Amino acid sequence: MVSMASGSATRKIAKGARSVTIAVFLSRILGLVREQVLAGLFGAGFQMDAYVVAYRIPNLLRDLLAEGALASAFVTVFSHYKEKKGISATWKLAQNALGAILVLVLGIVTLGEFLAPYLVKILAPGFSSPEKWKLATTLTRLMFPFLACASISALLAGMLNTFRVFFLPAVSSALFNLVSVSTGVLLYFWFVKTGIPPITGMAIGVVLGGLAQIGLQVPALKKRGFNFRPVFSLKDPGVREIFRLMFPMVIGLSAVQLSVFINTFFASFCGEGALSWLSYAFRIMYVPLGLFGVALSIAVLPVASSQVARGELEALRRTYISSLLMALTLALPSAVGLITFSGPIVKLIFERGRFGPQDTINTSLALAFFALALPAYASTKVSTPLFYALKKPKIPMVSSFLSVSINLLVVLSTIKMLSFRAIALGTSIGIFAQAGFQIAFLSSLIGNLCWKEFLSGAARLLGASLLMGLPAYFSKNWVFKMVGFKLAVATLGVITLCGGLYFALVAFFGPREGLYLFRSFRRQ
After folding, report:
1. What is the tens place of the pLDDT at every residue in 286-327?
2. Which partner from 241, 327, 397, 500 sits 20 to 30 angstroms from 482, CA to CA?
3. 10-36 in b/e burial notation, b at 16+ Cβ within 10 A?
4. Pick from 218, 252, 269: which residue ends a domain?
5. Per-residue confidence at 4, pLDDT binned at 50, 70, 90?
């Protein structure tokens, strides 16, 4: 009976992750298009470095509040209300939470507008040019309202996810990228004529994209009976529980943002273009991370919260192991592929306009170091929701500070030798430490994890990934010399060959979780 329940839960997660994966794939592709536009129009220099720092400031707070602590805490409490207290009490909680969060984030946005010059100085002290600092300050002020948009959007997405609606909230990110890049391109040509820094158009596009995300999700919630009347009531026990869960999550996620701050701080001293190379590299790595990591994280939390609410710990254990293997199914081959084939991939995506051959080399070096962390990222995306479902948010908090400490040690000890590459390496090693710490604690919390089954499955996935990487490794120099249409055909051809080889090996040797998502696709 337990086995059947856990199998059903795994299929629910696979179905939810599949829906999110389709939407996230579209979003990540449009995100890459946005980065291509930025690379072609601005390259890796003055305006782009200023934009990276300016976007990072509200984005740090978005990750900290909207898409991190707020989303996880809200879904945990909202799922509990839906299971135990009925739909009327659940919608009342949502109204009270929406009102409280609006007051909180609007206060932060107002404060951010005043503190923008100081925030830029703290985040990027290596900006020796007053013009670059001034431009970064202006862009920060333009983009700060995006935090409010992202917070509301995360709340709406959490509600829809609890009702097993995954595709629409996930595809709203694709709409964000579409609106932001189209707005930025249109304003670019106008601003060039009027003397306004053209990168300003991209900043305005970010805020409009955030508004579009909200607008896409509102009709779906109205259809399910939600009445958009925010009520500010901190006395509501559900709202208090959300903030109680958020507090340790915010502290834990602040460690992650501290890591980003450390990376930006050191990168600002690594010369013109270093921030841009790291940003472009991370954007490429973010595509596979979004496909498996974010998708599974979103799909796991409602299922795990329901299992904990019903006291089904055996089902929770099996759900966790199966989810880890599903995550590694794409994480391991993605890591091997990006490490061995980073040069042709970066050249194909970015090398045009103001983005030159040296930018390609430096971005591909950063990408190879970042890609090392993909399996560990995948693990944390699956493990962290379980701690929230178990109402043990302090453990991810401690693991985050461990990650930051190791990241800082690695950067300090290698930056003279590796320059900007030390930042990518430190990030990867820190994430591995965090993943190991979380797995060890989960094992002690819920116990009796099927480690033999997991290690067997993970070993088969790793073997298939390494065999898959051989064609990419031996063909990378040949493909890198190509240009234009030949480069595109050769790069996509090698990726297709490697992908086909990998999934053939997984289909033959297993594990069964390796094809869960794809069986769902085939049934559709």
Report:
1. 777 766 655 666 566 566 666 666 777 777 777 788 888 888
2. 500
3. bebbbbbbbbbbbbbbbbbebbbebbb
4. 269
5. very low
Query: Which residue is it, tokens 């086995």?
Result: 3
Domain coverage including residue 219: 51-269
Cα diameter, the chain: 69
A 10 A CB-CB count for 93 gives 24
Give the separation between CA 278 and CA 364, rounded to whole angstroms: 9
Cα–Cα distance, 505 to 508 (Å, whole number): 5
Write the single-letter amino acid at 147.
L
**341 Cβ contact list (under 8 Å, min separation 6):** 472, 473, 476, 479, 491, 494, 495
> How would DSSP label each residue in 82-95?
HHHT-HHHHHHHHH
Confidence at residue 291, expressed as pLDDT on a 0 to 100 scale: 64
Task: Supply 382's token pair.
Answer: 């699956």
DSSP letter for 315, please: H
User: Which among 233, 253, 269 is the end of a domain?
Assistant: 269
Is the model's pLDDT at 69 over the cut of 60?
A: yes
Could you tell me the pLDDT band of residue 328, with boundaries at 50, 70 and 90?
Answer: confident
Q: Same domain, yes or no, for 213 and 183? A: yes
DSSP state of 235: T
Q: What is the pLDDT of residues 210-232, one digit of tens each?
A: 999 999 988 888 888 777 776 66
The half-sphere exposure of 133 on its side-chain side, counting CA atoms within 13 A, is: 14
Give percent of the chain with pLDDT exceeding 90. 27
Nearest to 257 by CA among 397, 390, 421, 369: 397
Spatial contact of 191 and 43, defined as CB atoms under 8 Å apart: no
Asked if the structure places residue 113 within a domain, the reply is: yes
User: How many whole angstroms separate alpha carbon 335 and alpha carbon 472?
Assistant: 12
Q: Give the pLDDT confidence score for residue 348 in this predicted structure.
A: 92
- Is 89 a member of any domain? yes
* Amino acid, single-letter form, for residue 451: W
**How many structural domains compose the chain?**
2
Question: Contact, 421 vs 292, CB < 8 A?
Answer: no
Which of 94-98, 140-144, 409-413 comes out lowest in average pLDDT? Answer: 94-98
Omega within 30 of 0 (cis) for the link into 511 = yes
Rounded Cα–Cα distance for residues 282 and 262 (Å):
15
Is the model more confident about 26 or about 344?
A: 344
